[in-house]
């Protein structure tokens, strides 16, 4: 018998594990050995098990290990945001026995007789927080204010104040030769560029021409 490409020759029933809802109703917290999160997630992938380990990415200078001013100037470091915790969708609970047989996996996180879990809204909040952690430092303040506003933690006026540049506001320089130093905004020109007094507590210097992307609000 001859076959041709694209010809249907039969059907194979899919495993029950593939017949899962697109979005779980809840997520349960699985304890694993801290530092082995990535290894466990890899084992999950090999067994077609769904799970999420939040990851934050940093770029550090190769010489001293301090945070790099720009991603291309440093070495990429990936770390678990919550070491030792992996989030398991509710539809995988039926396979908990197999999951616990994986090396470095402990059990679901419990508090007495209460089992920890997150609903869809709480899980989305966590994803948003992890996303902000992966932003450049100069952009995190604005993103956090928007997050607080989105979930109703603060009012619109408070959100605007969190991100407003004004004379007298304290900043931290996030880019350039003065990166990491604190300063005080002294002037804002019509183009939005800043002049700030930047120092280390003992000595200081006036820096002009800073952009919003180069600074981080800290008060």
Fold and architecture overview:
This is NusG-like N-terminal domain-containing protein. InterPro entries: NGN_dom_sf. With 219 residues, the protein is α+β, with helices and mostly antiparallel strands. The chain folds into 2 domains: 22-134, Alpha-Beta Plaits, CATH 3.30.70; 138-219, SH3 type barrels (Roll). The protein contains 5 helices and 13 strands. The strands form 4 sheets. Strands 12-11-10-9-13 form a 5-stranded antiparallel sheet. Strands 1, 4, 5 and 8 form a 4-stranded antiparallel sheet that branches. Helix 3 (120-133) packs antiparallel against helix 4 and helix 4 (137-150) packs antiparallel against helix 5. The longest helix has 14 residues, at 120-133. The termini are far apart. 14% of the residues are buried. The mean pLDDT is 80.
Q: How many domains?
A: 2
The beta-strand count equals: 13
CATH topology of the largest domain: Alpha-Beta Plaits
Q: Tell me, what is the CATH class of the largest domain?
A: Alpha Beta
Number of helices: 5
What does the largest sheet look like?
5 strands, antiparallel
Instruction: Please provide the ordered H/E string of secondary-structure elements.
Output: EHEEEHEEEEHHHEEEEE
Contiguous uncertain segments of 5+ residues: none
Biggest sheet strand line-up: 12-11-10-9-13
Mean pLDDT: 80
**Shape verdict:** elongated
SS-derived structural category: alpha+beta
Query: What is the share of helical residues?
Result: 10-25%
CATH-assigned homologous superfamily of the largest domain: NusG, N-terminal domain
**CA radius of gyration:** 24 Å
